[in-house]
Amino acid sequence: MALISALALPLTSHLMGNYHDLDVWKKSVDLVVNIYSVTKTFPRDEVFGLRLQMRRAAASVPSNIAEGQGRSTDKEYRNFLFYARGSLLELETQIIIAERLSFLSGDVCDALRAQTVEIGKMLNGLLRYLRPDA
Hints:
Blueprint: H1 2-7, H2 23-39, H3 50-69, H4 74-100, H5 106-129
Helix pairs in contact: 2-3, 2-5, 3-4, 4-5
């Protein structure tokens, strides 16, 4: 019963919605699915190398968005959005590496980079919305 009471506490402004409703979260989950799909073709010896790093970085983006929205202040939320953005930039770098190692085709990498650019712009917009002087 205490858990139910704790969940019924008033929500801060950024918690009024649900992270499932955020387009940036939805698109970042789509990116995770795409990364998992394309990394299936990586060489077997990359199972614990670049493949794993790319999957972790990709999954970190929507995970940090969700975790940030669960925090009690906009400042904490912003911090987690910065972590998400950092993971996104890490993933962009890994996509470039995968292309240069010929693990992924240029077309696949271009499509993945287009997704990361779009998500990055959306994260930046959300960060501007939550800026401390707004």
